[in-house]
C-alpha cells in the first residue's frame, strides 16, 4: 500500500512552491498518496489561535508524515506559532538541517561546506514559560531535561553512523549555564562514548558559532540545544548559498514533518518567482525517511543537474554563472526534464532504502532515583528600596524564629549582600537565599511558616524555589558567574 502523507499548501509563496514540489514528486513516481489540510493565515483569521483546525490533528496523527509549506504567522493578538505547536504536540524532537555548498554554481565563500545541524526541537527557552514578575523584571524559563538531551544526542550519533559522517560536534554555553547546558554537554560525553568510531568534540557556542561562520568546512554533524540551533542553522544555510535552498526534517518517535527552512515571503507571492528548492529538498528528506531512497536520489540528482546547468530562480541568479533566469513553474519543469540524469561537476547523491531513523526513547536500565534532601529556599521578592542591607535586616528579623538563616541576597544573579559593591546596578527584583540552620528541620512546614511570616511583614514574595541536594550534590547554582 502507498504511504499516505499529509500536505499543507501554506501562505504567501507556499502554494506555488508546494505545487512545484508535488509535480516533481509525481513525475518521479514517488510512491505516496496524500490528504490535504488547511493551515495558517485563513485559519488564524477564523479565530483559531494555533492556526490549525481540530480535525487536521486527526489527519496528521493518522498519516504520521507531514509535508508542510511555509505559513504567515500574524503578529500580536495572542496567535501562536504553528510550527512550534506542531513540533511540540507531535513530539518532533529532532530538527535535521543539511547545509551544503553548490559552488561554483551558487555563490558562497565556503565551497567545501557540508554541514548537518541537528537542533533539539522541544525544550530550552522554547517551552514558552514566561512571566512578568515585577515592574522592571520579566523572566523566561530555560528547561533542559535528561530525556530531551539523551534523545537528541543519540539521534545525532545514529544519524552520523547511518550517513557515514565522521564527526559529531556539540555546541553549548556550559561555562555560564553550568546546570542546563552542563547537562547537555555531559549527556553528549556519556552517549558519545558508545560511538567509538565517530570523532567527538565540544565547543562553547560563541566561539563555535564564529568558527562555523568562518570555517564551516571544519564541521560535519553539529548537535545543539534549541535556541542556538535555531539561529545557527539559518546562518549555516545562508553562508552555504541561500536560506532559499535548505530543507529541514522534524523527526519524532511516531510522526515527522518536512519543510523548507524559509518563511512565506509574502512580497514574492503569486508572481511565479519563488524558488521551490528548500521545500523540494525537504521532500527529498521525506522520501529517504519513507525508505524510498532511490526516488529521493533521482529527484535530488535531477535538482543538482538543474542547478549545475545554470537554470536558476531570481534569488540565486548570478550574471556570468547562471544561464537562464526562470520562475517557479519553469524551474520545476527543468527538474522534471532531468529526472534520471546525474550532475557531472557537483557530487551525485545516493540514499539507501532502509527503514526510517526513528528512535524510541528508553530510560537507562541503570536509572536510579536520587536521594533528594531539601536544604534551603530561594525567595524572590519585589522591593523598591535599593539598599540590600535594609532588605537583609528586615528578612533576618522575619526569620528569627525559624530554623533558617539568610545566606545571601543577589540582584540579577550578582551578590549584593553580604559584602556587595556599591557600583552594582540593582533592579526591584531580589533573590534571597535562606538555608536550613545547622542542618536543622526543613520541608513544606518550614516553608509555609516562612511564607506567612514574610507576607505578615508586607514583603512582596514573587516566587520561591526549593534548594535540594541530589545524592549529596547541590541541585542549584551559586548564580554569580558571568
Ligand atoms: P522569509 O523567509 O519569508 O523571507 C526572507 C527573504 O528571503 C525575503 O526577501 C524573501 O523574498 C526571500 N525568500 C524566502 N524564501 C524564498 C524563496 N523560496 N524564493 C525566493 N525568495 C525567498 O522570512 P520573513 O520575511 O521574515 O517571514 C515572512 C513570513 O514567514 C512571516 O509571517 C514569518 O512568520 C513566516 N515564517 C514561516 C516559517 C514557516 O512556516 N516554516 C518560517 C519562517 C518564517
CATH topology of the largest domain: Isopropylmalate Dehydrogenase
Determine the N-to-C terminus distance.
58 Å
Bound small molecules, which ones? nicotinamide-adenine-dinucleotide
Structural class: alpha/beta
Report the count of strand segments.
20
CATH class of the largest domain: Alpha Beta
Please provide a written account of the structure.
This protein folds into three domains: 1-98 and 242-355, Isopropylmalate Dehydrogenase (3-Layer(aba) Sandwich); 109-240, Isopropylmalate Dehydrogenase; 372-474, Alpha-Beta Plaits. The strands form four sheets. It has a ten-stranded mixed β-sheet, sandwiched between helices. Strands 17-16-18-15-19-20 form a six-stranded antiparallel β-sheet, with helices on both faces. The longest helix has 17 residues, at 146-162. Helices cover 32% and strands 22% of the residues. Helix 9 runs antiparallel to helix 10 (293-308). The protein has 482 residues and is of the alpha/beta class. It contains 13 helices and 20 strands. It has helices spanning 14-27, 41-45, 54-63, 82-89, 146-162, 180-192, 205-214, 226-240, 277-289, 293-308, 328-337, 388-398, 444-456, and strands at residues 4-8, 33-37, 65-68, 94-100, 114-120, 130-132, 138-140, 167-172, 199-204, 221-224, 247-251, 256-260, 311-312, 324-325, 372-382, 404-411, 414-417, 429-436, 460-470, 473-474. The N and C termini lie far apart (58 Å). A hairpin with a 4-residue loop joins strand 11 and strand 12 (256-260). The model has no long low-confidence stretch (mean pLDDT 94). The structure holds nicotinamide-adenine-dinucleotide.
Amino acid at each position: 500500500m502507498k504511504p499516505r502523507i499529509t500536505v499543507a499548501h501554506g501562505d504567501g509563496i507556499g502554494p506555488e512552491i508546494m505545487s512545484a514540489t508535488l509535480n516533481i514528486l509525481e513525475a518521479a513516481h514517488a510512491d505516496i498518496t496524500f490528504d490535504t489540510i488547511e493551515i495558517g493565515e485563513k485559519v488564524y483569521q477564523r479565530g483559531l489561535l494555533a492556526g490549525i483546525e481540530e480535525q487536521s490533528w486527526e489527519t496528521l496523527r493518522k498519516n504520521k508524515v507531514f509535508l508542510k509549506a511555509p505559513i504567515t504567522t500574524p503578529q500580536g493578538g495572542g496567535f501562536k506559532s504553528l510550527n512550534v505547536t506542531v513540533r511540540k504536540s507531535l513530539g518532533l524532537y529532532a530538527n535535521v538541517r543539511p547545509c551544503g555548498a553548490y559552488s561554483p554554481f551558487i555563490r558562497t565563500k565556503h565551497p567545501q561546506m557540508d554541514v548537518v545541524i541537528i537542533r533539539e526541537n522541544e525544550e530550552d527557552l522554547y517551552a514558552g514559560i514566561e512571566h512578568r514578575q515585577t515592574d522592571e523584571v520579566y523572566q523566561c524559563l530555560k528547561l533542559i531535561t535528561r530525556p530531551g538531551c539523551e534523545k537528541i544526542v543519540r539521534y545525532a550519533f545514529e544519524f552520523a553512523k547511518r550517513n557515514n559522517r565522521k564527526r559529531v560536534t556539540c555546541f553549548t554555553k556550559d561555562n555560564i549555564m553550568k546546570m542546563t547546558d552542563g547537562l547537555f554537554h555531559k549527556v553528549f560525553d556519556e552517549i558519545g562514548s558508545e560511538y567509538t568510531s565517530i570523532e567527538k568534540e565540544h565547543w562553547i557556542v560563541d566561539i563555535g558559532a564564529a568558527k562555523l561562520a568562518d570555517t564551516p568546512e571544519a564541521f560535519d554533524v553539529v548537535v545543539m540545544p534549541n535556541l542556538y540551533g535555531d539561529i545557527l542553522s539559518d546562518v549555516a544555510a545562508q553562508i552555504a548559498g541561500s536560506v532559499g535552498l535548505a530543507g529541514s526534517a522534524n523527526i519524532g518517535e511516531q510522526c515527522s514533518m518536512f519543510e523548507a527552512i524559509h518563511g512565506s515571503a509574502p512580497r514574492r507571492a503569486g508572481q511565479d518567482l519563488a524558488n521551490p528548492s528548500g521545500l523540494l529538498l525537504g521532500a527529498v528528506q521525506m522520501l529517504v525517511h519513507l525508505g524510498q531512497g532511490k526516488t529521493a536520489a533521482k529527484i535530488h540528482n535531477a535538482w543538482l543537474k538543474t542547478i549545475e546547468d545554470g537554470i536558476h530562480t531570481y534569488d540565486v541568479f548570478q550574471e556570468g554563472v547562471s544561464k537562464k533566469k526562470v520562475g517557479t513553474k519553469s524551474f520545476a519543469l527543468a527538474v522534471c526534464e532531468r529526472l534520471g540524469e546525474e550532475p557531472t561537476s557537483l557530487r551525485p547523491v545516493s540514499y539507501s532504502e532502509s527503514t526510517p531513523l526513528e528512535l524510541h526513547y528508553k530510560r537507562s536500565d541503570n536509572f536510579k532515583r536520587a536521594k533528594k534532601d531539601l536544604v534551603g529556599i530561594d525567595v524572590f521578592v519585589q522591593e523598591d528600596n535599593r539598599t540590600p542591607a535594609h532588605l537583609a535586616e528586615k528578612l533576618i528579623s522575619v526569620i528569627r524564629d525559624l530554623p533558617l538563616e539568610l545566606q545571601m541576597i543577589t540582584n540579577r544573579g550578582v551578590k549584593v549582600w553580604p559584602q556587595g559593591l556599591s557600583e552594582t546596578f540593582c533592579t526591584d527584583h531580589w533573590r534571597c537565599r535562606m538555608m536550613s540552620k545547622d542542618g536543622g528541620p526543613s520541608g513544606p512546614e518550614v516553608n509555609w511558616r516562612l511564607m506567612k511570616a514574610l507576607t505578615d511583614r508586607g514583603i512582596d514574595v514573587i516566587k520561591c524555589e526549593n534548594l535540594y541536594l541530589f545524592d549529596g550534590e547541590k541541585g542549584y547554582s551559586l548564580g554569580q558567574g558571568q
